[in-house]
Amino acid sequence: MFLAIKEMLHEKLRYGLIIALILLVSYLLIILSGLATGLANLNRAAVDEWQASAIVLNKDAEGRLSQSFLAKKTVAALPSNGAKLSQYSTLVKSAAGLKENTQLIAVASDSFIYKNLKVTAGKKATKLNEGLVSDKFKNDGFKIGDQLKVANSDVKIKITGFTPRATLNVAPVVYVSPKTIQPLNKGMVNAVVFENHSPSRGDLPMGTKLFAIQAFINKLPGYSAQQLTFNFMIGFLYVIILIVISIFLYILTVQKLPNLGVLKAQGVSTKYLVLSILYQSLIMSIIGVVLAIILGEITAIGLPSEVPIVITTSNLLISGFGLIIMSLFGALIPIRQITKVDPYKIIGG
Predict the structure, then answer these.
(1) pLDDT at residue 8, as a whole number
(2) The pLDDT of residue 303
(3) Which of 150, 196, 241, 254 sits between 20 and 30 A of 125, alpha carbons compared?
(4) Which residues on neighbouring strands pair with residue 121, listed in sequence order?
(5) Which tens digits make up the pLDDT trace of 158-210?
C-alpha cells in the first residue's frame, strides 16, 4: 500500500481525474437509485402499509384494481377474514381552491387494513363523509377539518387526519368508509384483501383470481416497466465505471512500464506490484464513492418535495459496495500488463 499511496501523491492530477470520474458516475448512480426507490414508493406505499399477503380480484381484470369488480355473491363466498376494498379515482377540491388527484379507498372500520393505518395528525375517519388522507395533502396546504368536494358529484369528505406513506399509482390516498364511497361507485367491491390465511386457489369462487401481494404490485400500471428501465440504467452505469477504471489504469500502467521493469530487476515481486494496483483502485473508488454519497445526500435534502427521491441506507450500501467491486475488476487488465513485464527487455539487458 505504501507504493500505491506514494505514487498517487506524486501524480495527484492524474489520479485526481480518475477519482473525479468515479465521483460523477457514483453520484449519478445514487441519484438514479434514489429516484427508482422514490417512484416505486409512490406507486406501492399504500399497499405496503396494508401489510397484506394476498388479494383476490376479478380474473378478467389482469391484476388491475380499478378494472376488477366482484359481485356480492362472489364476495360472500370468500372467507370472512378478508377485507373488502373499494377504489375510486377522482379529483377533490377544497373550499380554498386547492385541488388534488386522488384515489378514494373504502375499507370497513373493523378490517385489518383500517387497523394497520398509522396516523401522524388528527384521527382516523369513523363517520359518514369523513376521510383519513395521505400526508401529501398536508404538504400541499390542506388542513384537518377541510371539506373535500369530489369532482362530478355532490359528495363532500371532511379531513379528520393524515396518514403517512399513503400513495397508490402515484396519487395520494383518501381512506373513507364503504357508505361514503357508495354514491360514487354504487357500492361495488373491487377486491378482497387478506392479511393471512388466504383461500387456496382451488377454493376460490368462479370468476376470481388470487394474487400474492408482490405479484399484485408488479401489475400496478407502469410499475414493472418503470423499475426495469431504472435497473437497466443502473446496470449500465456499473459497466461504465468498470470501463473507465480499466482504461485509465491501463494507460497509467503502460506509461510506467519502464519503472516497473526496473523495480522487477531490483527484486520487487510481481505480487507486490499487483497489490499496489489493487490498492490504488480500492483507494480511488472509496474516495469517489464517499464523496458521491455526501453529494447525493445534500442533493436529496436540497431538492423540492415534488421530486420523488428516496436515498436509503440499504441503497447506499448496495451501490457503494457494487461500485468498489467494479473498480477492483477494472484493475484486472492493468494487472495482466504488469505480470507480462520482462525486466530484461524493458531495461535492454
Answers:
(1) 77
(2) 86
(3) 196
(4) 162
(5) 999 999 989 998 899 999 999 999 999 888 999 999 998 777 877 888 889 99
11 & 59 share domain: no
For 104, the domain range is 46-219
| CA separation for the pair 233, 239 (Å, rounded) | 10
> CA-to-CA distance for 311 and 320, rounded, in angstroms?
13
**Same domain as 324, residue 249:** yes
pLDDT of residue 336: 84
Q: For residues 241 and 126, what is the distance between their CA atoms, to the nearest angstrom?
A: 55
Last residue of a domain, one of 197, 219, 241: 219
**Cα distances (angstroms) measured from residue 12 to each of 8, 65, 107:** 6, 58, 63
Q: Give the residues of the chain that fall short of pLDDT 50.
A: none
Is the Cβ–Cβ distance between 266 and 54 less than 8 Å? no
Distance CA 48, CA 37 (A): 14
- Report the alpha-carbon distance of residue 12 to residue 283 in Å, rounded: 13
Based on the structure, what is the number of domains in the chain?
2
Whether residue 180 contacts residue 171, with contact meaning beta carbons closer than 8 Å, is answered with no
pLDDT of 305: 77
Give the helix/strand (H/E) hosting 54: strand 54-58
pLDDT tens for each residue of 62-111: 889 989 999 999 999 998 889 999 999 999 999 989 999 999 999 999 99
Domain boundary among 165, 194, 219: 219
Question: Kind and range of the H or E element at 336?
Answer: helix 332-339
Residues 61 and 206 in one domain: yes
Cα-based distances in Å from 10 to 6, 89, 330, 339: 6, 64, 22, 23
10 Å CB burial of residue 56 (0-12, 13-18, 19+) is buried
pLDDT attached to residue 346: 65
- Are 50 and 36 members of one domain? no
- Helix, strand, coil percentages, rounded to 5, for the chain: 55, 20, 25
My answer on whether 228 and 214 are in the same domain is no
Please tell me the distance from the alpha carbon of residue 320 to that of residue 313, in angstroms, as a whole number: 10
